[in-house]
């Protein structure tokens, strides 16, 4: 944060019910982690969306660059053999 | 002690608890579009909706007990100033952010203890409303405590202003622990909360948070009273009901 009058940004992750993963759902501005947690509760769980919240300082996240998309992700596009769709699943295994 | 019937006392009791929620809830709603950030806007509106929701349940119960065909709306929109028996703390103007936080903090600390006790009421409906409200006010207390700690232990200016808010609002806290004749009567039946008995715990909560906030607790124990016992309000109250009741007074029965 260059402007010290602005509260830092926090990324918010919500778990919608027990057993599921936390999913990114947005961000909030807050002075510290405890306030970020409360802000996330007030902004993102008003319609019973969650049972658990994580907040992470946005600047702690290292993100891939959009312009690297081709070199990072496109090489995987023609490697369909990496998908486990070529195996016959034994009947006894049931649904996978 | 009083000529009040138990029935009337109970209607009055449900309505007066509702009045606290409606009036402070309305005050919080006045921050809509004016809060310092979108996050705080949402926080205050959630809080306002919790409190107004509590009022709706209590008014609905009061209307049912009253038995003359009234609804929750009659209690909110068609009573006059003197009929509202909220604690004066609920109606004091929003002031600055610190005033709003301190008012919410004092009220929420009280509400938490009050609704905890109300869950043990021999009146099943009040006990159920108490249990639902308790979860809401527990969050209000957490939210307002965290804010007060940051304001008090923040910058020099925020500290000074938070201390001024505490000092200014302190005189409205004494009324929280008073009992009306109706309440004393219902207390004997195990229906009403003994609000006088909540004071030591309230003092403890307030002292703990003020200490963390590096704020000092005012020594003065003189208190404004008259809201809940007599319906004698502060000067600003008329503006609240003018704002709140205008539509129903101008267009009786209007709905949308």
Describe the structure.
The complex is a heterodimer of chains A (96) and B (256). Chain A is built from two helices and three strands, in the order ββαβα. By secondary structure, chain A is of the alpha+beta class. Chain A has one domain (9-61, 68-93): Ubiquitin-like (UB roll) (Roll), CATH 3.10.20. A three-stranded antiparallel sheet of chain A has the order 2-1-3. Chain A is flat and about 60 Å long. Chain B has eleven helices and no strands. Chain B has helices spanning 6-29, 38-66, 72-77, 88-91, 97-118, 124-152, 156-170, 181-188, 199-212, 227-230, 237-250. In chain B, α1 (6-29) packs across α8. The N and C termini of chain B lie far apart (45 Å). Classes of the chains: A alpha+beta (96), B mainly alpha (256). Chains A and B meet through α1 of A and α2 and α6 of B.
What are its keywords?
A: 96 residues, alpha+beta, Ubiquitin-like (UB roll), three-stranded antiparallel sheet, B: 256 residues, mainly alpha, Ferritin, 66% helix
Question: Helical amount among residues of chain A, as a percent range?
Answer: 10-25%
Unreliable parts of chain A: none
Question: What is the terminal-to-terminal distance of chain A?
Answer: 46 Å
Number of strands of chain B: 0
Shape-level CATH architecture of chain A:
Roll
Runs of chain B in which pLDDT lies below 50 for 5 or more consecutive residues are none
Largest sheet of chain B: none
Count every beta strand of chain A, where a strand is a DSSP E run of 2 or more residues. 3
Largest interface here, residues on each chain? A-B, 14 and 13 residues
Q: Which geometry of chain A do the CA atoms define? A: flat
Percentage of residues assigned to helices of chain B: 55-70%
Q: What value does the average pLDDT of chain B take?
A: 96
Main sheet summary of chain A: 3 strands, antiparallel
Number of H/I helices of chain A: 2
Order of helices and strands of chain B: HHHHHHHHHHH
CATH class division of chain A:
Alpha Beta
CATH superfamily of chain A: Phenylacetic acid degradation B
């Amino acid at each position: 944060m260059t402007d010290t009058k602005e509260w830092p940004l926090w990324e918010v992750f919500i778990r919608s019910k027990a057993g599921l993963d936390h999913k990114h759902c947005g961000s909030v501005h807050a002075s510290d982690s405890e306030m970020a947690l409360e802000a996330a509760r007030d902004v993102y769980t008003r319609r019973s969306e969650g049972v658990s919240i994580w907040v992470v300082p946005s600047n702690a996240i290292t993100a891939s660059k959009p312009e690297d998309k081709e070199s990072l992700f496109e090489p995987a596009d023609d490697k369909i053999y990496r998908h486990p769709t070529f195996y016959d699943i034994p009947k006894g295994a049931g649904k996978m | 002690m009083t000529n009040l019937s138990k029935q009337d006392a109970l209607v009055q009791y449900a309505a007066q608890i509702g009045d606290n929620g409606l009036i402070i809830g309305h005050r919080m709603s006045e921050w809509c579009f004016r809060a310092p950030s979108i996050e705080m806007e949402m926080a205050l509106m959630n809080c306002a909706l919790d409190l107004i929701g509590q009022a709706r349940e209590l008014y609905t119960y009061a209307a049912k007990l009253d038995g003359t065909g009234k609804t929750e709306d009659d209690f909110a929109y068609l009573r006059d100033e003197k009929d509202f028996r909220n604690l004066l703390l609920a109606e004091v103007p929003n002031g600055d952010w610190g005033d709003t936080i301190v008012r919410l903090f004092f009220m929420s600390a009280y509400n938490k203890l009050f609704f905890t006790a109300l869950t043990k009421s021999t009146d099943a409906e009040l006990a159920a409303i108490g249990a639902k409200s308790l979860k809401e006010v527990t969050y209000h207390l957490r939210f307002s405590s965290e804010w007060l700690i940051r304001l008090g232990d923040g910058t020099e200016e925020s500290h000074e202003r938070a201390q001024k808010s505490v000092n200014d609002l302190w005189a409205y806290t004494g009324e929280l622990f008073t009992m009306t004749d109706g309440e004393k009567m219902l207390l004997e039946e195990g229906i009403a909360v003994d609000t006088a008995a909540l004071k030591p715990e309230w003092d403890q909560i307030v002292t703990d948070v003020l200490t963390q906030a590096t704020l000092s607790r005012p020594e003065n124990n003189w208190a404004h009273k008259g809201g809940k016992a007599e319906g004698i309000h502060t000067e600003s109250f008329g503006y609240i009901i003018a704002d709140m009741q205008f539509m129903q007074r101008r267009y009786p029965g209007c709905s949308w």
